[in-house]
């Protein structure tokens, strides 16, 4: 009976363990489901502006998740281990009970055998012999009665032991079941806590992602504002530096005048003057030529005069040659190469060396001569007979094609130029002169050239610098081919787009890539970055023209500057060339302005 009950208790314990395992699997599945939801919620809120922050948060979420799984497994394994230990204890107690019961049964059999042997032998001897003289008369009866009592007492002890063992097994089994149930409840509570923790982590992840996105946006805005402030500070610093140089030059002149007048000057001051004189008198003096030295002439005014002369020569050829079709090609020398050659040749002239920090009529003529030695304009005409097809209506709704033979005169204008290296060969520069030329043209000096040539230092002036470097290029092939066209198109918009691309403004979304003027103006209008034709523009803004006054833009260029009510521009495809133009502010030809967010 005790064996059956013990086995029932063990089976119940095993069932309890199975329930705990099922509950454990369910809790794992629930946790996995919660984890998936948390991940889905996280990635739904992810912001492209905060990939770094999102990775950081994802790492934290994974760490919390792993810790939850670890705690869950730890609690579940502990509960299962406790249950196994209780089962082993129950089995040990059952086995111990069986051993004790077997021992009792063996003792009982031995006692019965001994009693039978003791009881039968006296009866046998009594039949054959007389009782001993001293033995009582009822000694056999008393022995038998005592044996029966002993037997009954043994049976009673066995029953009592069995009942106690049965109670022990029941108590142990109940304790095991309760322990297992407690383990299951503990595991369930642990799972719920883990799931709740994961949900809270997911919410915290979403909130952190949103906060990181906002922080990144604020950082980008702050960086942009800082960049603008830095650009402004650099402009102010450059202006201050140029003013200081101008003051030094003026002071140098005054000191020289004082020395010539017989005044006394400290030796240290004289040494400083000598150093400044060496710098201004060297090839690098060209970087100080952007300032007026007192005669109203600067490098910028001379460069504009030469550009105007160049445009006049093109116009003379175009207007002075009868033609039906104009085709222009080629490009002009870059101005910084022209000035670098001028600086080296002028300052190292063995017959008449001169400084290039200032400008006068003599030096202007030297610069013009070098410019025209580096640039050449050639032209030719050619007559071509071509067949043209025209379509007309015969008055009955039919289209009639008519072939006619037309002879047209083509005017071909070609602009060619020499490089700085070719000019060094032409002038026979020695090794030292070539080294000076290379140092002047180094990339790190580009900003200095922009300041000298165009008065531009940084920021929105970059596109103006690029545009001015293309003045004189004819035909537009570098610009429309860059855009992707196989043949010539009206290329004013391609030119503006090309200049913007050189500055990185297309990739950054500051200026669109456009080949049609209407599309370009609409892009700025759609973004609220538009001003009408009466607006007073600034350098780097995009100017659109309406030649016919029909409300649609026909042409586009880049604002170089605006001074004294005049807008100065750089335009591609102006007479099929890159040219500088000017218009009164509010001119009827000006359609409006695109305002890039530099």
Describe how the helices and strands are arranged.
Blueprint: H1 2-44, H2 51-128, H3 139-260, H4 267-281, H5 299-320, E1 325-330, H6 335-347, H7 361-374, E2 375-393, E3 399-417, H8 420-427, H9 431-440, H10 446-454, H11 461-469, H12 477-483, H13 492-502, H14 517-526, E4 530-532, E5 542-545, E6 555-563, E7 566-571, E8 579-584, E9 590-594
Helix pairs in contact: 1-2, 1-3, 2-3, 6-7, 6-8, 6-9, 11-13, 12-13
Explain what this protein looks like in three dimensions.
The protein is α+β, with helices and mostly antiparallel strands. The protein has three domains: 2-125 and 141-226; 299-439, no CATH class; 456-598, Alpha-Beta Complex (endopeptidase fold (from Nostoc punctiforme)), CATH 3.90.1720. 62% of the residues lie in helices and 13% in strands. The chain is built from 14 helices and nine strands. The strands form two sheets. Strands 4-9-5-6-7-8 form a six-stranded antiparallel beta sheet. It has a three-stranded mixed beta sheet with strand order 1-3-2. α11 packs across α13 (492-502). It starts with a helix and ends with a strand. 28% of the residues are buried. The model is unreliable at 1-14, 37-50, 120-141 and 228-244 (pLDDT under 50).
């Amino acid at each position: 009976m005790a064996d059956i009950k013990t086995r029932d208790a063990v089976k119940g314990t095993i069932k309890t363990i199975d329930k705990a395992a099922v509950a454990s699997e369910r809790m794992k599945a629930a946790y996995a489901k919660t984890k998936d939801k948390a991940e889905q919620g996280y990635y739904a809120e992810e912001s492209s502006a905060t990939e770094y922050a999102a990775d950081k948060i994802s790492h934290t979420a994974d760490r919390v998740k792993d810790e939850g799984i670890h705690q869950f497994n730890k609690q579940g394994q502990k509960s299962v281990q406790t249950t196994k230990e209780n089962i082993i204890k129950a089995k040990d107690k059952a086995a111990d009970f069986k051993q004790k019961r077997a021992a009792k049964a063996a003792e009982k059999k031995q006692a019965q055998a001994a009693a039978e042997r003791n009881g039968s032998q006296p009866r046998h001897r009594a039949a054959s012999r007389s009782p001993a003289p001293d033995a009582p008369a009822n000694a056999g009866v008393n022995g038998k009665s005592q044996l029966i009592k002993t037997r009954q007492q043994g049976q009673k002890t066995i029953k009592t032991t069995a009942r106690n063992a049965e109670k022990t097994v029941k108590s142990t089994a109940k304790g095991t079941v309760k322990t297992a149930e407690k383990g299951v409840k503990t595991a369930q509570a642990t799972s719920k806590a883990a799931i709740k923790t994961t949900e809270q982590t997911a919410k915290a992840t979403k909130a952190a992602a949103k906060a990181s996105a906002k922080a990144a946006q604020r950082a980008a805005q702050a960086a942009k504002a800082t960049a603008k402030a830095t650009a402004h500070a650099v402009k102010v610093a450059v202006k201050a530096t140029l003013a200081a140089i101008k003051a030094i030059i003026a002071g140098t002149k005054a000191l020289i005048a004082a020395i010539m007048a017989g005044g006394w000057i400290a030796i240290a001051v004289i040494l400083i003057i000598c150093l400044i004189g060496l710098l201004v008198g060297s090839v690098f003096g060209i970087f100080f030529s952007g300032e007026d030295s007192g005669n109203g002439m600067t490098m910028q005014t001379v460069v504009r005069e030469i550009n105007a002369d160049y445009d006049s020569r093109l116009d003379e050829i175009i207007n002075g040659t009868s033609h039906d079709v104009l085709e222009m090609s080629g490009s002009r020398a870059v101005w910084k190469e022209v000035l670098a050659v001028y600086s080296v040749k002028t300052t190292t002239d063995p017959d008449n060396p001169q400084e290039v920090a200032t400008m006068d009529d003599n030096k202007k003529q030297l610069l013009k001569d070098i410019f025209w030695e580096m640039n050449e304009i050639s032209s030719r005409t050619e007559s071509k007979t071509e067949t043209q097809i025209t379509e007309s209506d015969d008055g009955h709704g039919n289209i009639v094609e008519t072939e006619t033979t037309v002879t047209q005169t083509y005017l071909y204008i070609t602009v060619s130029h020499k490089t700085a290296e070719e000019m060094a060969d032409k002038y026979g520069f020695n090794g030292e002169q070539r080294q000076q030329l290379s140092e002047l043209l180094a990339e790190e000096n580009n900003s200095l050239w922009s300041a000298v040539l165009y008065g531009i230092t940084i920021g929105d002036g970059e596109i103006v610098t690029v545009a001015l470097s293309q003045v004189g290029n004819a035909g537009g092939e570098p610009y429309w081919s860059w855009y992707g066209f196989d043949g010539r198109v009206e290329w004013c918009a391609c030119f503006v787009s090309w200049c913007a691309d050189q500055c990185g403004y297309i990739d950054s979304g500051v200026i669109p890539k456009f080949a049609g003027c209407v599309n370009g103006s609409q892009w700025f209008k759609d973004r609220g970055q538009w001003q009408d034709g009466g607006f007073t523009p600034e350098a780097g803004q995009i100017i659109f023209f309406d030649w016919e006054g029909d409300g649609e833009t026909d042409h586009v260029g880049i604002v170089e500057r605006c001074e004294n009510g005049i807008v100065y521009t750089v335009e591609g495809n102006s007479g099929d060339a890159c040219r500088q133009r000017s218009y009164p502010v509010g001119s009827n030809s000006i359609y409006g302005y695109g305002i890039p967010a530099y």
